[in-house]
Specification:
about 180 residues; mainly alpha; two-stranded antiparallel ribbon; 8 helices; about 0% strand; globular
């Protein structure tokens, strides 16, 4: 007898959440001296965080937007800021331009990349984008500058990831509860 398995949207979301957590966990384990691995892990974490966020937002947009108002600090601009990073890396800005690897300086911090911070980058040029796309990218960039770089804990990358993954975990845990967050 053949066994079937439902590979519907819920399973895909669960896999995305797992991949997001695996990627963020890798960030917490990399030695500061290993710059290439650090940058790769941060890029992967940004990718999975934005994938999980977009999936949850599309699944139930009303619940997503109500839940965002329940979390302090509000993670919405941080999520938009990470979307700016995702959209721009490899196109007009390299990931290394977004990151200040402060733990690799003479004061090694805790010896891991957990001390690294986001740095200011110029706004997107708009080259190759429609006017509407450029407007959206500027909105994401402003969110990056205010919530991610100048946000909590001095723009610490691990803090940024923790804020957003905490919100996404909360939303994911309650996504099937029709009364939440009433």
């Amino acid at each position: 007898m053949a066994t079937t398995f439902d590979y519907g949207p819920g399973v895909a979301l669960d896999w995305s959440m797992r991949a997001m957590h695996d990627a963020v966990t890798r960030v917490n384990k990399i030695a500061a001296a290993d710059l290439p691995s650090g940058f790769a892990a941060i890029g992967e974490a940004v990718w999975w965080i934005t994938i999980a966020s977009d999936s949850l937002r599309r699944t139930d947009p009303d619940k997503y937007h109500r839940a965002i108002g329940l979390v302090i600090p509000n993670p919405s601009d941080t999520i938009l800021g990470l979307r700016s990073v995702r959209n721009r890396i490899g196109h007009e800005v390299e990931l290394v331009d977004f990151i200040e690897p402060i733990a690799s300086r003479p004061d090694p911090g805790d010896g891991r990349i957990t001390a690294w911070v986001w740095r200011h980058v110029p706004p997107p040029s708009g080259e190759g984008l429609t006017e509407g796309q450029h407007k959206s990218e500027l909105k994401y960039h402003r969110a990056y500058e205010t919530a991610v770089v100048d946000g909590g804990q001095g723009g610490n990358i691990v803090y940024t990831f923790g804020l957003v993954t905490g919100f996404l975990d909360l939303l994911c845990q309650h996504r099937l509860d029709p009364a939440w967050p009433e």
